[in-house]
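Reopening this ticket.

The earlier resolution said the output was attached, but the attachment link was broken on my side. Pasting everything inline this time so it's all in one place.
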Amino acid sequence: MLTYVIVLTAGLVTIAGQAKRTDVIPKRGDDVAVKGCIVAGTIESTDTEVRDSTGSYSSFVTYRISGNKKIVNPIKKEHEGHADVLIGTLKSDLPETNSPKSTQIGNTRVVIGAGEQSRTNPMAPHSMPVLDVKEIEHTGVNCRT
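Inline output:
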């Protein structure tokens, strides 16, 4: 019985050590890398990471692409429907996540509890954070057919 408890405790400590903290949400002014699908001047993403690896955001969000026209116009025209990585600066804050407590373990997000609805009118348009794009990392993968 004691051996079983020790093995179970060691396993839980190992899993807890592998958990990636996501308490820090990227904020306005942070340099970020956004992985997602480029559609109609926006990028739809569930993977936003601060460039210095101090925080990440894993909820679905659609960013409006902005920035220097020499960079943005080719992205909008040539990369439509591509799953690429856009690197830039957040020009607005991200929406609050709807879950009060969450952690990332490997490729799985574990959520405890349930959040309240963030908007009173579900038909109202979603806010669209702005991403000032500096560069693109093309992956060669299509996300829309």
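Reporter confirms the inline version is readable. The two ends are 56 Å apart (CA to CA). The first strand starts at residue 31 and ends at 39.
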